[in-house]
Amino acid sequence: MPEKIIPDQASLIDAFFHEQDQKLLGQLRARLDRQTKKAQLAEIAGITDEAVLDRLVELNIGPETLAAMELVPLICVAWADRKMDPSEKKAILAAADSIGLTAREELRELLDHWLNRRPGRELLDAWKHYITALCSQLSADERRRLESFVLSHAERVAEAAGGFLGLGNKVSPQEQAVLKELHQAFAS
Length: 188
Fold this sequence. Notes:
74% of the residues lie in helices and 0% in strands.
């Protein structure tokens, strides 16, 4: 004879399975959200390394944060000598475009603002504090890969202005000092 289920038991069983369904749905949503964040980070930054993307998502680094993290070194290097050279501006726009930053209106507005007005020292200081804190959460290999990715464009911007009439050292002493500061932030 089948077991008779009384109404209170039925609602208890329904509640149990509803709770399990909600838990499974929550896990599915979290997985999809993680994949979406990784895709956004990859699109914004051009990062294809799954380990770095996974770690950035774990650390709750969003696309906007990553975009700003990439733009600040470019801007600081270009303004190192207190003027924005047209070739530096062109190199910044090319770098920003190559990693998809100019496609997003809010990031383009921020970039345009920084291209036309030199930001204060506090921007570089805030970036260094952020990178130092982020790097403390990364392995040495993850840190090296992130440093290479973030600073490769900054080095190209520094080389963009060239020396006098294209001769001599392509990177000014002021730009070299900023590049050194940027690299040191990853080593802290």
